[in-house]
Amino acid sequence: MDLERFKVHGEPLIYGAMISIVLATIGIIVGLTYFKKWGYLWREWLTTVDHKKIGVMYILAALLMLFRGGIDAMMMRLQTAAPEMKFLDAQHYNEVFTTHGLIMILFMAMPFIIGLMNVIIPLQIGARDVAFPRLNAVSFWLFFFGAMLLNISFVIGGSPDAGWSAYFPLASLEFSPTVGNNYYSLALQISGIGTLITGVNFIVTILKMRAPGMKLMKMPMFTWSVLITNVIIVFAFPVLTVALALMMFDRIFGSQFFTMANGGMDMLWANLFWVWGHPEVYIVVLPAFGIYSEIVATFSKKNLYGYTSMVFSMIIISLLSFLVWAHHFYTMGQGVMVNSFFSITTMAIAVPTGVKIFNWLFTLRKGRISFTTPMLYTLAFIPIFTIGGVTGVMLAMASADYQYHNTMFLVAHFHYVLIPGAVFAVIAGFHYWFPKVFGFRLNERLGKHAFWWIIISFNVTFFPLFFLGLMGMTRRMYTYSEETGFGPLNMLSFAGAVGLAIGFVILVYNIYWSTRYMPRDTTGDPWDGRTLEWATNSPIPAYNFAVVPKVQTRDAFWSQKVDNIQLYEEKITKIHMPSNTGKPFILGAIFFVFGFSLVFSLWIPAILSGIGILIVMAAMSFDRDHGFYIPAEEVIATEKKLRGETV
Amino acid sequence: MNKKGPLYALFISLVLLLPGCSSIAVLNPKGPAARTLSDTIILSILVMLGVLAVVYILYIFILVKYRAKKSNEGYIPPHEEGNKWLEALWIAIPIVIVAFLSVVTVKSTSAVENIAEDYKNQKPLVIYASSSNWKWHFSYPEEGIETVNYVNMPVHRAVEFRMYSFGTITSLWIPQLGGQKYAMSDMLTKLHLSGDTVGSYIGKNANFSGKGFAHMEFEALVMSDADYADWVKEVKETAPELTEDEFKGLLEMDFAGRKTYSSTHLTFSPPPGDHSEHMSGDGTEMDMDNGHMDHQDNKDIHPSPEPSSQTEFDGEPNPELDQPLPTSAVDEETHEGH
Question: What is the predicted pLDDT for the residue at B333?
Answer without folding.
Answer: 43
